[in-house]
């Protein structure tokens, strides 16, 4: 492309799509490693399977579309999608959940729209919701942490049996915190009865509770996200608005009736909120362009999460919330454009006012 | 003074460290100078010399006939050997009419004018600035006298002097401010006088501490001139951004700086004004930064206009084309040069030869909608959306999104992780819109012509009809007259009088 040389700039920032994806994966690494440690071999198998399936599906789709493999595969986006999906699955789910999820994420969530940059919805969330709706049982069997090497934790062979053999692991299974609280609420019980000791904030921060890899340690997820913001890979807008809205609503309703509405810490630290706010809703492709748009989008995600968690049919609303807001992004982008230099918001030239200096 | 800053912008790696400590040195006169007659925006100058004619340093070799133009002078004593087409510093090396001067061994010294320029009237100052062929030295090359004229007509109050130099690599203005601050300040004072403006503000980016300190000290004796330090950020040097920085005001779309009572000139232009009015030198040389990773000994050179770029490079230790990419101007808004056999002209602030490591070219990838381009755009545009429209050839839609408000600063393309050549899209889009406008105008003209023709035909018809009517009336009149005469022959006169009315 010799004519690229004709116009500047002739110097470019040291960024690239693959470097951006790599930075996000690096930020996910601590939480992922910690989660893999907590949930042991079966989680590792599922993780690897999901990633490989995502890559395989990407290759297949690219080949079918006749697009060059190396460039598109190396951008890392398929790997990241697989990774995010794996972090939102029950860690001991059977292998086919991971494979099917990746197929849906890459095939339906991304490539059907035309590949990277063209998809309207976050691919990992599309897969997560599709799986949850189609296979509610394996998708809500959350495993209690059984750290590698601890008593009763499956070794690598037992892990294979769990992931590939469909071995039942009822001893470890249970509902997540959000799930159990929701069920108890529907039975008309008060929060003080359900959680006599109150919300165990430390447990939520560190992750030693039922949940997915990405739900376990809110602290490690948050640290990874903060690192990304500090390095300028993602912006503060969406996470700030999303977490802020959830926190605000939680505070408000908790003040109204503490027995019915758990507090801020419970909402911020449990479920996939932290992962979604920092790593999923911030997905550049499916979030708005401008600061105002991003704040609105984040606030919308946050409000929907709170609504679904509190009054909806599912204990966790993150994936639904993000997808619903994704659908609104074109509208948000249409109405919240930046003001052009020298023009008012309506695009008319600013009035001529002469400088009258002192 | 409070600063307002401007929206967007980027911080490209400055890469000024290799030349910022190097004093300006004078490049020895080359054997031949290739002086283009068009070194400015506007109409080309008209050749005043013939091949074989001897010329003196500072002699007029190209006169400006049009208002929007600038004259061109001989940078050295010598003989004109040719006036013909020669490659210009342009991406396609477009040929322009160029006077080739064989430089003689002996050079006459400059004759300093006797009169005090501060004793001249503003109109006379403007005239001399015009006669000296001074144009915007920051690279825009807009004839300075025209800008001053316009500003005077608008009664401008504030003169802003751009000492930003926000482009990477370039240090020529920095050195000029450090070494020739006094001349710059005098030049600014003369411009103020010419404009009859109230104050001048010299803006310098805060990464040029020495230049700032020098000018600040010098301005102490000049109550009308203030030096301001502005945060280092690209595109600070752009007029719109600089004015926004100082006044917190935007130039209305389609308007001019003069609408705000402001005019902006570059520090090097102020220096050129000093040289012209105090030293009696028309614009025949300029300071050029020769830099870039491929240049073994980078430098800030004072170069006679018309010197070939290859001579500058050779002087700095670079022979042949041992570089990856050659640019005139800075790497953000500068232009690519296909080869170094083009002359240095009035607007050439830098000659940058980039090494392979500095020009890592990556294949453009699909846009990931990261909105970094939106964040950095100082014009408040949506570069990703503009590019999308232009790619689909939807130029009207792109125009609605503000394509014409793009200042082509390249901030968006600089940050784009997908390496999309956004500015190139915008140039293409603007070109297409322009072509369409021309086309429409042509159609309009055709329609006008058709309408005029129809009207003319109608008029002719009407005239014909009128003539026919007249003839008919005349015939009738004649008939009646004859009848009357016949009658008169029989009776008395009164009828004839009635006919005569
Ligand atoms: S769209 Fe134009 S004005 Fe905005 S950053 Fe890009 S080149 Fe600069
Ligand atoms: S910076 Fe590049 S990749 Fe990002 S939104 Fe703009 S055009 Fe797309």
From TrEMBL, chain A:
A Pfam family recorded for this sequence: NQR2_RnfD_RnfE
Localization terms from the record: Cell inner membrane
Annotated transmembrane regions: 21-39, 45-65, 95-113, 125-144, 237-256, 268-285, 292-311, 317-336
Entry EC no(s): 7.-.-.-
Cited InterPro entries: NqrB/RnfD, RnfD_bac
Main location (coarse class): membrane
Domain of life: Bacteria
Keyword tags: Cell inner membrane, Cell membrane, Electron transport, Flavoprotein, FMN, Membrane, Phosphoprotein, Translocase, Transmembrane, Transmembrane helix, Transport
Membrane-topology descriptor: Multi-pass membrane protein
A single Gene Ontology CC term: plasma membrane
Cofactor: FMN
An annotated GO BP: transmembrane transport
Key word Electron transport present: yes
Presence of the UniProt keyword Glycoprotein in the record: no
Listed PANTHER family: ELECTRON TRANSPORT COMPLEX PROTEIN RNFD, ION-TRANSLOCATING OXIDOREDUCTASE COMPLEX SUBUNIT D
Family under the similarity heading: Belongs to the NqrB/RnfD family.
Record note on quaternary structure: The complex is composed of six subunits: RnfA, RnfB, RnfC, RnfD, RnfE and RnfG.
Role description: Part of a membrane-bound complex that couples electron transfer with translocation of ions across the membrane.
Protein name per Swiss-Prot or TrEMBL: Ion-translocating oxidoreductase complex subunit D
Record organism: Aestuariirhabdus litorea
Lineage, highest ranks first: Bacteria, Pseudomonadati, Pseudomonadota, Gammaproteobacteria, Oceanospirillales
TrEMBL record, chain B:
Positions of region (Disordered): 471-501
Cofactor(s) needed: [4Fe-4S] cluster
Protein's membrane topology: Peripheral membrane protein
Domain 4Fe-4S ferredoxin-type: 357-387, 397-426
Matches recorded under InterPro entries: 4Fe4S_Fe-S-bd, 4Fe4S_Fe_S_CS, Ion_transpt_RnfC/RsxC, Nuo51_FMN-bd, Nuo51_FMN-bd_sf, RnfC_N, Soluble_ligand-bd
Cofactor note: Binds 2 [4Fe-4S] clusters per subunit.
UniProt xrefs under PROSITE patterns: 4FE4S_FER_1 (PS00198), 4FE4S_FER_2 (PS51379)
Enzyme Commission identifier(s): 7.-.-.-
Residues at which [4Fe-4S] cluster 2 binds: 377, 406, 409, 412
GO biological process: electron transport chain
GO cellular component, one term: plasma membrane
Enzyme class: translocase
Location (main, coarse): membrane
Keyword Membrane part of the UniProt annotation: yes
Entry keyword annotation includes Transport: yes
Keywords, comma-separated and alphabetical: 4Fe-4S, Cell inner membrane, Cell membrane, Electron transport, Iron, Iron-sulfur, Membrane, Metal-binding, Repeat, Translocase, Transport
Domain of life of the native organism: Bacteria
UniProt-annotated binding residues for [4Fe-4S] cluster 1: 367, 370, 373, 416
GO molecular function, one term: electron transfer activity
Subcellular location: Cell inner membrane
SUPFAM superfamilies according to UniProt: alpha-helical ferredoxin (SSF46548), Nqo1 FMN-binding domain-like (SSF142019)
NCBIfam families on file: PRK05035.1, rnfC
Family: Belongs to the 4Fe4S bacterial-type ferredoxin family. RnfC subfamily.
Function recorded in the entry: Part of a membrane-bound complex that couples electron transfer with translocation of ions across the membrane.
Name under which the protein is recorded: Ion-translocating oxidoreductase complex subunit C
Species of origin: Aestuariirhabdus litorea
């Amino acid at each position: 492309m010799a004519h690229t040389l004709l116009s500047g700039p002739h110097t470019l920032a040291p960024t690239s799509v693959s470097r951006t994806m790599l930075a996000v994966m690096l930020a996910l690494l601590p939480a992922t490693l910690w989660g893999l440690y907590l949930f042991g071999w079966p989680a590792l198998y599922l993780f690897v399977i999901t990633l490989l399936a995502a890559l395989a599906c990407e290759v297949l789709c690219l080949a079918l579309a006749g697009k060059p493999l190396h460039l598109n595969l190396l951008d890392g986006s398929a790997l990241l999608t697989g990774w995010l999906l794996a972090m939102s699955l029950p860690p001991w789910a059977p292998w086919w959940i991971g494979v099917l999820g990746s197929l849906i994420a890459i095939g339906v969530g991304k490539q059907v729209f035309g590949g990277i940059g063209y998809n309207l919805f976050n691919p990992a969330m599309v897969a997560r919701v599709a799986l949850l709706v189609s296979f509610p049982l394996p998708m809500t069997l959350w495993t209690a942490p059984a750290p590698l090497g601890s008593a009763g934790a499956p070794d690598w062979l037992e892990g294979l049996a769990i992931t590939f053999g469909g071995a039942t692991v009822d001893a470890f299974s249970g509902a997540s915190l959000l799930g159990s609280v929701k069920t108890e609420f529907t039975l008309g019980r008060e929060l003080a009865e359900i959680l006599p000791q109150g919300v165990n904030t430390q447990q939520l921060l560190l992750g030693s509770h039922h949940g997915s890899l990405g739900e376990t340690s809110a602290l490690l997820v948050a640290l990874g996200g903060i690192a990304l913001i500090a390095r300028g890979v993602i912006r503060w807008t969406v996470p700030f608005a999303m977490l802020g809205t959830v926190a605000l609503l939680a505070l408000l309703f908790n003040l109204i009736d503490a027995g019915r509405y758990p507090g801020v810490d419970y909402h911020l630290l449990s479920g996939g909120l932290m992962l979604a706010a920092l790593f999923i809703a911030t997905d550049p492709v499916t979030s708005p362009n401008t600061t105002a748009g991003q704040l609105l989008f984040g606030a919308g995600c946050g409000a929907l999460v709170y609504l679904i968690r509190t009054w909806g049919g599912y204990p966790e609303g993150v994936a639904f919330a993000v997808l619903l807001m994704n659908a609104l992004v074109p509208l948000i982008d249409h109405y919240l454009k930046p003001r052009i230099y020298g023009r008012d918001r309506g695009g008319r030239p600013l009035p001529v006012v002469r400088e009258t200096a002192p | 003074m409070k600063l307002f800053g401007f929206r967007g912008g980027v911080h490209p790696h400055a890469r000024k460290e290799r030349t910022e400590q190097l004093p300006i040195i004078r490049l020895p006169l080359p054997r031949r100078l290739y002086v283009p007659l068009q070194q400015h925006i506007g109409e080309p100058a008209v050749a005043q010399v013939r091949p074989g004619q001897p010329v003196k340093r500072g002699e007029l070799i190209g006169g400006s006939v049009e208002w929007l133009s600038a004259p061109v002078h001989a940078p050295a004593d010598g003989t004109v050997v040719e006036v013909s087409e020669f490659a210009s510093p342009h991406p396609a090396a477009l040929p322009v009419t160029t006077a080739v001067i064989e430089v003689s061994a002996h050079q006459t010294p400059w004759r300093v004018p006797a009169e005090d320029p501060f004793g001249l009237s503003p109109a006379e100052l403007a005239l001399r600035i015009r006669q000296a062929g001074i144009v915007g030295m920051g690279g825009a090359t807009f004839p300075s006298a025209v800008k001053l004229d316009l500003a005077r007509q608008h009664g401008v109050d504030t003169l802003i002097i751009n000492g930003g130099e926000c482009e990477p690599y370039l240090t020529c203005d920095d050195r000029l401010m450090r070494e020739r601050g006094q001349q710059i300040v005098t030049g600014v004072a003369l411009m103020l006088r010419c404009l009859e403006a109230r104050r001048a503000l010299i803006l310098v980016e805060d990464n040029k501490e020495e230049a700032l300190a020098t000018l600040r000290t010098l301005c102490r004796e000049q109550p009308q001139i203030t030096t301001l330090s502005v945060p280092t950020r690209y595109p600070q040097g752009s007029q719109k951004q600089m004015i926004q920085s100082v006044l917190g005001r935007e130039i209305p779309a389609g308007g001019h700086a003069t609408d705000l009572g402001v005019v902006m000139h570059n520090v090097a232009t102020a220096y050129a004004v000093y040289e012209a009015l105090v030293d009696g030198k028309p614009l025949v040389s300029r300071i050029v930064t020769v830099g870039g990773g491929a240049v073994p000994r980078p430098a800030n050179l004072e170069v006679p206009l018309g010197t070939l770029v290859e001579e500058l490079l050779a002087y700095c230790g670079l022979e042949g084309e041992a570089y990856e990419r050659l640019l005139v101007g800075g790497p953000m808004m500068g232009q690519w040069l296909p080869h170094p056999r083009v002359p240095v002209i009035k607007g050439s602030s830098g000659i940058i030869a980039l090494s392979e490591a500095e020009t890592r070219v990556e294949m453009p990838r699909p846009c990931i909608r990261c909105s970094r381009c939106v964040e950095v755009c100082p014009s408040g545009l949506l570069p990703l959306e503009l590019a999308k429209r232009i790619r689909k050839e939807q130029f009207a839609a792109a125009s609605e999104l503000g394509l014409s408000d793009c200042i082509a600063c390249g901030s968006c393309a600089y940050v784009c992780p997908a390496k999309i050549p956004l500015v190139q899209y915008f140039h293409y889009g603007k070109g297409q819109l322009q072509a369409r406008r021309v086309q429409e105008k042509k159609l309009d003209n055709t329609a006008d012509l058709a309408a005029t023709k129809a009207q003319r035909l109608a008029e002719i018809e009407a005239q014909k009809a009128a003539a026919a009517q007249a003839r008919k009336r005349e015939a009738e009149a004649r008939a009646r007259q004859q009848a009357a005469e016949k009658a008169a022959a029989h009776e008395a006169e009164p009828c004839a009088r009635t006919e005569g009315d």
